[in-house]
Amino acid sequence: MKLLRYGPAGQEKPGLLDADGRVRDLSAQLPDLRGDSLLPEALARLAALDPLTLPLVAGQPQQDLRLGPCVAGVGKFIGIGLNYADHAAESGMDVPSEPVLFTKWTSCIAGPDDDLHLPAGSTSTDWEVELGIVIGAGGRNIPEAEALDRVAGYCVVNDISEREWQTQRGGTWDKGKGHDGFGPIGPWLVTRDEIPDPQDLRLWLELDGTMRQDGSTRTMVFGVAELVSYCSRFTTLEPGDLITTGTPPGVGMGQKPPVYLRGGQVMRLGIDGLGRQTQRVIGA
């Protein structure tokens, strides 16, 4: 299934994408796509529905029908740093021996096509297309062999980052990762059964029509199962938690000279089988 949330910001309703690419309303089935609605038994109930029996929502998604963040009420938004060896190299950093964890504040979460407003004082806002993992049946100290069974599904994430704030303002990376709008997710949550191998997905990003990133999850340093298991050693993973898994090379920081976002530019990004996003950049 491709599950989604549609409507004006702050008033989104749950829905699913039918075989014709139209949105079907799930409001009568559940209040929202969050928490316990992402547990395996809840997803099984949704999968048993005939989409043609659900109300058809007017409009075409990502055209005249806004899509919101594909998951509501995210409790934890965990980022993984330097998880592609070639991205670590372009960043001038060593490939980590263990996953690098940081947090993105959940107030950064945005819809997949919402405008990105550059923060006041920003000089170095950058892009990062990433595979997002949405937790279903979570837990603590999850064995790696069981980790994929704890995943509800996957989504596209743009891990937008202000590099000066991330690396030059003291403390941890979090200052540069959690500004409002720095976490577009969606357009939809694609359930785990539709993605048989999360380590074989192409991901890409264009800026003003120029391809900047074009990679594959095959080249991750730490794969999805290892990341879910590893994160669960340090925190209890709960339904609806989100892990964003790192980015391939081609970010602005890695260009020579570096290239950062400016007002008026447009980012387009996507992952095979998970959809695409488009963000227009608005100057501070």
Blueprint (SSEs and pairs):
Layout (H helix, E strand, L loop, with lengths): L1 E5 L6 E5 L5 E3 L14 H8 L29 E5 L3 H6 L9 E4 L5 E2 L5 E2 L7 E2 L2 E7 L15 E8 L2 E2 H5 L15 E2 L4 E3 L10 E6 L2 E7 L7 H8 L10 E3 L21 E6 L3 E8 L2
Parallel strand pairs: 4-16, 6-12, 7-18
Antiparallel strand pairs: 1-2, 1-13, 2-3, 4-5, 8-11, 9-10, 9-16, 10-13, 14-15, 14-17, 17-18
How does this model look, in words?
With about 280 residues, the chain is mainly beta. It has four helices and 18 strands. The protein has a nine-stranded mixed β-sheet with strand order 3-2-1-13-10-9-16-4-5, covered by helices on one side. A five-stranded mixed β-sheet has the order 7-18-17-14-15, with no helix packed on it. Strand 17 and strand 18 form a beta hairpin. The chain is globular, with a radius of gyration of 18 Å. The mean pLDDT is about 95.
Kindly list the characteristics that best describe this protein.
mainly beta; five-stranded mixed beta sheet; nine-stranded mixed beta sheet; 18 strands
Helix content: under 10%
The spatial strand order of the largest sheet comes to: 3-2-1-13-10-9-16-4-5
Question: DSSP helix count?
Answer: 4
**Helix and strand sequence:** EEEHEHEEEEEEEHEEEEHEEE
Global mean pLDDT: 96
The end-to-end distance, rounded to whole angstroms, is 38 Å
Concise summary:
With 284 residues, the protein is mostly beta strands. The protein is 10% helix and 28% strand.
